[in-house]
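Appendix B: a complete holo record

For completeness, this appendix reproduces one full record from the ligand-bound portion of the collection. The bound molecule is zinc ion. The inputs are the chain sequence and the ligand SMILES; the output is the full three-dimensional arrangement of the complex, encoded as structure tokens. No fields have been trimmed.
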Amino acid sequence: MQLNIKADRLWQNLMDIARIGGTARGGCDRQALTDLDIEGRALFASWCKPFGFDITYDAIGNMFARMNGRDATLPPLVIGSHLDTQPTGGKFDGVLGVLAGLEVMRVLSENDLVPKRPVEVACWMNEEGARFAPAMMGSGVFAGMLGLEEIRASKDRDKVSVGEELDRHGYGGMPHPTDKIIHSYLELHIEQGPVLEQEDKTIGIVTGAQGIRWYDISISGQEVHAGPFPMAMRRDPVAALPTLLQGVRDIGTIDTHARATIGQLNASPGSRNVVPGEVSLTVDLRHPNEDTLTEMHRSLEALLERLQRDFAELDIRSNLIWHSPVVAFDPTLIDAVRNGVASHGYSHLDLVSGAGHDALMVARKVPTTMIFIPCRDGLSHNEAEHTEPCQVEAGANVLLSAACDILGLSRA
Ligand SMILES: [Zn+2]
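The structure of the chain with zinc ion bound, as generated:
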């Protein structure tokens, strides 16, 4: 007999917690460390109580619910995500991963399946980065990628700091996040993109995440009057744009995994009858393979050098402002997910994550992987975000199977 999650209970929990910060258009506004966020956490804790799952916190406000194993000295398998949302967020982004983790622990507990190692559900603090920047704060500090003190100093629009809010909610005196030792990490999440739906697949087996490189590019020339100045005598930065824009597009089409985006494009001073003195733009390059991403980086450099030669009257500068390396998830955990998908007979597709997730931070520290389920029209960070009850059920069942596999529990 296959062990399954209780789909109705999980769905009801998702709908119940969505009322906390629920918006008129059916979405959710439960931003990190607000009173609503704390209220959501309290509801989660109330669901843990009947099962005797202990709740603990750390000094960055990460919250953990623990199901004891037979050997308390072993580091736990952690399943999690986040309960905070965007200001106009949906009901599923993050929340699904936390509540599905809880569902896994409840089912194990109800079936008297006590693993050797403990299991915990993590609610990472401020994944969204909507109220406080940067995103993935709690998991970032846990993984040692972000410093606790520097993050405590981050302020929201009203000049309230993370530190003040952590202290107000009583998290300030808790243990340092990097002290926590865990065995491995699983996260179920909506895809936040259209691929699974388009391919009509139930489960995304996530093998890793794209590497990202961000550039600021500027092309300087000379501001002159749009009328009297002959074209041939101008130092017009716009002259270099067609080659540059097409070149960046071409870098994004070297294979189907590559992405190249020009998200900002600005001419200054921005007057209709002035030849701009400067054009500035941003380039975002992504690829799931680090070597290919490096190759894309070199192509961009070569493109800019070629442009500088062809347009000697202009000054072309490029600045790499951020590089997030490719994340490869753990092969053993990916296999555990694969086995779970196979045992349920769900249709599936291998994917790489295009968005940021707590799992990407945690993966820098311990073996990690993710499971995706489809969301309607690929919409997320949107009040209309939706995923079907049967899709939630499938994702949580795979999560349960993978957890059993990792814990050495028979799924029979
Ligand atoms: Zn999320």
